[in-house]
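Sample A.
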Amino acid sequence: MGVKAARIVFPPSDREEIAAAITDILATGALTLGPYTRQFEEAFGAAHGAQHAVATSSGTSALEISLRAIGVAGRDVIVPANTFYATAAAVLRAGARPVFADIDAATFALNLDTVTAVLTRDTAAVVLVHVGGLITPEIGELQRLGTDRGIVLVEDAAHAHGSTCDGIFAGSFGVASAFSFYPTKVVTSGEGGMILTGSQEIADEARIYRDQGKGSFGANHHVRHGYAWRMSEQNAVTGLVHLRRMDEFIARRREVAARYDKALAELDGLRALAEPPRCRSNIYKYIAVLPEGMDRAVFKQEMAERHDVRLAGEVYDVPLHQQPVLAEFATGEPLPVAEDMCARHVCLPVHSDMTDDEVDQVLTAAAAVYGRLSASGPGQAGG
């Protein structure tokens, strides 16, 4: 049997509960901004120790709403170069200019030096992305930088459901944070997002923005340039049920990661992204960095064709400053660490219900392919 890049896990009992709830939703006609949305908000906020939670239509909209609520229009917002397009898109849609920063190779995240290097007089905010579910241990330094300079820290926690640093959950470090419930995430609602914040004002603004900028749900009275960013009740109940599995899913993913760590440590030159002390990742992605000169495309091809193991997508393969659609915001200056890490890493498959046999298959494949390519020399595909 092959190992897929990703697998979405809904046990039969969960599917039955969701189906019954959707039948109820359709019978009542309360299809949006109803009781399941409120329950999901309350449960997700409680699971992350957050005071306020606001459900939205996507992680992208959650980030855009957060940036709109704090007021970044006309100013600069720093983002890491190695993040998904949506991070920069949310900045642009909120009326700000994205400024691309380099990253730390040890964490795939911004650090104090890379942020300081691109600060401008117009910097309004820094968006810290928890790539693969890992929160950088330097997050406290970034918080202090923002406080000292009047710059707002926002978390793009799309990958980081249940992740912690110093025992503090993702979503608790910035003034606001954005989570995604896209199908591949540790917790999914099909489509959807969530804003977590300790600010009543930001939460109130977010609820206005997500519902076409209306002052109240039933009124045709618009006070903000909002949009249709609501979460449906069907999505909300799906997320609510799936959220109950978060702890067990993360526990299994961490067991898989521990086995990967041990095996990859024996492959000289293949570096797993280490979990720093004080940090506990949800292992949304398992990231490993190939040695210089090894062809990633060939590595992935041989894993699939010779061993029936499909690798998960990169995080990410093309940095933002090299994306054609964002060319006008690129300065032309290299961001060498981001460029290098984007080009050389792979993501081994991790499923929330991964079997030991699947783990063995991945490790056998990785050792064989890595050994073969290492023996062939840089850039060699072999016969």
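Sample B, a different protein:
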Amino acid sequence: MDEATKPAQPAIRLTWLDSMKGISILWIAFFHFYTTYTNHRYPDPLGPAYFPKFLEQCTPSASTLWCVSHGFWVAVWSVGFHAVAVFLVLSGFGLTYSLAKTGVPEDGWLGWYRGRLLRLFPMYWVAHFVYLVSPFVARPEPIDYRFFLSLLGDRVYPVYSLFYYINPAWWYFGLLIQLYLIFPLLFRMLQKLGPVWFLVVCGVATVVIRYLLLFTISAHGYYVQGAFGGSRLWEFALGMVLGLLYRRSASDADDRLFSFPAITGGAVLYVLGLYSYANSVTYIFNDALIGTGLFVILAHVARWCDLLPRFGGTLAYVGAFSYGLYLLHQPYVIYFGERMREMPELLFSVLAWGIIALITIAAIPLERYVNQLTNWVLDRKKESRQPPAVSYQPNLEIKS
């Protein structure tokens, strides 16, 4: 029997997954906001000797404890882009968890592709339209032929001018498209190889690809970031394995993931990921270390947040509709952030979170309406393709 089609438990709602999405998207949104404020006024948290350099900038009247706390605050919000790796793990998790029970899509792989594309593109197109007509958005580049390439889902070629075009956050969309295209092949590999060997193969492939991009081809950094999907294969593959394990036995997977050794290991891996920025050789392992370690850490944080029902429920609700917020937020936060950067930092942060809340309140119903409209259109088309019912008179005669 294939590894990914063994008897499994019924599907359950893993609320901490949505809470993780909520934490991650809000972290990313505030990161984009906060970087407009910092604007190189502080040392790079990922550079060498960050805290000593930060302490040197502190005013003489400030205490060491205050300076260290402020430095930690700056560092946490300045690495919010790391949460993108968590979304990669979650993407692999969700796709595999939904398929692992049967091992094959209900409508075949063509139907599976159709469903995924219909999940991704309508809201993506709406985000383009909103960008065109909306005031209060940053417009760093002109609307030209690249806008139409972006509408088609191309965020890769020409990589130098399109990867970060008009809305830099959309680079992730191009990466998702690539990973979705090869998902059937990856899923079949997981079925044949099993979780351990599948991770080994994907891990080796990721390291080799990143080595070739960095040292053999000397490719642009965008390709390593995600313009070439193979450079981020590990995070996606890790999510696939976790989705399979949770489908088999959610209680066993929970016991392992939410254990003290797991959170300790996650913290160690994340710290190693932070140090992997030191040079090009260690950077080969950067995203794998960051994604693995941070996933474990945020899984625990999400579980702790769920202990506060209202707070955890709010995070889960935001996470369930994180896609729309991801697509819409960045041009707005850059626009307002650039105009607020001369404010005191505390006031800036309070106003920034207020603006993020307003964007979230607008993005969630918009995504819901887009999804409802898409489903309505598809249902109408499905009904129109069905043959009309044939009238007949039932034979009510009962023969002995």
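Observation for Sample B: Residues 171-216 form the longest helix (46 residues).
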